[in-house]
Amino acid sequence: MTTDYKATVFLPTTDFDMKAGLVKKEPALLERWDRLDLYGLLRKARKGREKFVLHDGPPYANGNIHIGTALNKILKDVINRSQSMLGKDAPYVPGWDCHGLPIEWKIEEKYRAAGKSKDAVPVSEFRQECRAFADHWIGVQKAEFRRLGVEGDWDDPYLTMSFPAEARIVEECLKFLMNGGLYRGAKPVMWSVVEETALAEAEVEYHDHTSTTIHVRFPVVSGPEVVRGASIVIWTTTPWTIPANRGIACAADADYVRVKVTEVAEGSRAQVGEAIVVAGPLLPEVAKAAGIAAYEIEAGFPGSDIAFATVCAHPFRGQGYDFDVPVLAGDFVTMDTGTGFVHIAPSHGADDFELGRRHGLPVPELIGPNGAYLDDVPLFAGKKVLWPNGKEGNANSSVLEALAAAGGLLGQGRLVHSYPHSWRSKAPLIFRATPQWFISMETNDLRAKALTAIDEVRWVPGVGRNRIHAMIASRPDWVISRQRAWGVPITLFVDRKTNEPLRDAAVNARIVAAVQAEGADAWFTSPPERFLGAGYDPAQYEQVMDILDVWFDSGSTHAFVLEEREELKWPASLYLEGSDQHRGWFHSSLLEACGTRGRAPYEGVVTHGFVVDGQGRKMSKSLGNTIAPQNVIDQNGADILRLWVATSDFSEDLKIDNDILKAKAEIYRKLRNTLRWIMGSLAGFSDAERLAPAEMPELERWVLHRLAELDKAVRAGYGDYEFHRAFMALTDFCITDLSAFYFDVRKDAIYCDGPASIRRRAARSVLDILFGCLTKWAAPVLCFTMEEAWLTRVPSETDSIHLQEFPAIPADWHNPGLAAKWDRLRDLRRVVTGALEIERREKRIGSSLQAKPVVHVADADLFALAQTADLSELAITSGLDLVEGAGPADAFRLEDVSGVAVSPAPATGGKCVRCWMVLPEVGAHADHPGLCHRCYEVVAHG
Predict the structure, then answer these.
(1) Is 915 marked as binding a ligand?
(2) What pTM was computed for the model?
(3) Within this chain, do residues 294 and 387 fall inside the same structural domain, yes or no?
(4) Any binding-site annotation on 312?
(5) Is the C or the N end of the chain the one with fewer CB within 10 Å?
(6) Residue 375: CATH number of its domain
């Protein structure tokens, strides 16, 4: 009877499942963390350490999280967990942006569906509905973020709608009032007709839009001889702004021509014999657009000859527009399209406004909040630029008809171009001059302070610095007022006589105290006397009812989160958001902090790209290419999503689709199997078995060297926020160095050597070290899986992998000389395994253990190295003959490994039934004839 030796082989055994089962295991681990109060334990464990504070950019509380939000929160969690395991105290306070148009818009939609108007509802009631809506979605998103494995102070997050937060936002705004940076002025701002409010640049999207273009004659009233009796021709894509025209801009250094029309095409509005003035380079384009078939150039001159010396008549002169239209020089006039003349409507353009301000042009208010011409506007009263649904109104067509009737319309066309739209309603915007509240970029040197602060911040990637620097350098004053109902009010009183805001510290203090106690609703529900006190007559003051720009809210979070919470610090160590936040949260936070504290509220800023599909396309429901994080978690588990984040270069746009997720799941499977084999092979391991590195064979010391290299790579990757480099180095090590090499070589020793074997003890000592390193290094990313592995091997009711720190790797593990030797030995091994693979494929052997190849080494240095290693163990053969020399011509070789040739040969002897090696010694032991000497010693003597 053949003896069964299976029980004598030390095969791996572990409770760490081969199948991940993340969908079921992850919620249980979340419950465990909540039960342990893991966040509280972390704070105690890291108390007194260097603080690392990542300040959470508040997501909007108005719907389920999407894949981009999941990416953002996972990145933050990986950073916080890694910084904690690097030994720092990394508290994380999540927060929510609760005010603003998106939430208000949802409540209005509900009203509209019910046939109601929000204006018919008391403002306090409407605001309460907005508050309840935000509160609901905070609860939903909190659960979704938690399911991603994000650890933080979920029991006490910050909310911009909490009473203390609203009070601090009010206080921050009043600081600008008191330092003179806040003022009211009438400037053109981007205005949403649909939402009836001003919008900030960060609330604007740019989409293709088809505009009506017109060429319009402005008859010259007076000026140099060269333009008398002619008409200056302007071109614009906004016909509705013609009634607001108060000037014309030209380029002083450009060439202009006076042209006499001699022939026109059929249907042309040009007239034979008329004289027009346009830029010389654009004359052919103008002639084609106006149907001018032939012309004579009567004169040429630079723009400087007519600028500030020419006055034109408005096209509607005699119909209520009886004012002069001066020609001015403007540095924004270009020669790429149009006529070389820009019509100036100071009420409806930033460049127009600034040019008009410098030269005293009026800024007429002609358009109301609903996009309609006001009742006193000649010819066009009541006409609308846009209808309430955002579609083009009847203003353009009315202006075109009036221009044609007055003889001012020379040409008409259509143009598709990029145009600003509201990010909420998706409707086109208009520039509209209205009285708004602004924070000056020049008062108190805010712009200069912000530009200086930018250079004191670490920007990752570095191009972020240039981007925000250019924005700050060129940005206009910050318009902070919104004509809405849900948000923090601009708590000001304006003197009706002087039109100046009241600056009184005692009044400010009463306002802040009221908001602290009752929330911002107190501003709307309290009589003015409550705030003004006995020293002021309410009748003499206008109470401002505008709402603060929601970006001012979020830009102030540093004040009521970082400065107010004892566990945090100001400035933050890091802000992290998408690259669009250079014009959003990074921007508003910078301006708010520089305006009140003189520096940025962050030491570093990291930006990530956007999520796109596998083909690089933007995700949209219409394309059907969206990936919901909830679905990924339900199908694969959160750790797969976290692995996708960590192995992607987030400095660029991140691709995701089902195939990409499958590839990440395969990487996860290999990592899990690596860990499982380590844990299984460590069954029964104890400290008594452990060997010191000095007692280990070279192969184990080579693994320790690789760990020393990995330690540097992992720490640098996490520290530099390049997780993909750190984790891919870790993954490559597990798959290439461990599974495909070290484990392959050492399986025999671990399975078949006796417990006292130096090889086996050394290997298991290294596996124990590997377990500690790999689980800790991977824990910030695979937070659930590494916790499962840790608790499987080190069961505890109170411990967690996340309470650990990255291992301290001894400096003497680093051994470049040994690494260089083993690099060459691994090259030699590749030639042997390549030769044996052919033998297997040709079915001349079944496994490498049936072979005893002859290895020819021509390189004397390599031959000497090879003599110091057990090559048969390295190649997993039952023997190996090493011969110095080039070897026969028919030997197997690899092109990239010179001087090594292999002649395959079969091993001779019997097959050991325990270790499967083929050796001559098998059969030498009468009591165990099927065993080799090594296996006999283990079985017979233990």
Answers:
(1) yes
(2) 0.87
(3) yes
(4) no
(5) N
(6) 3.90.740.10
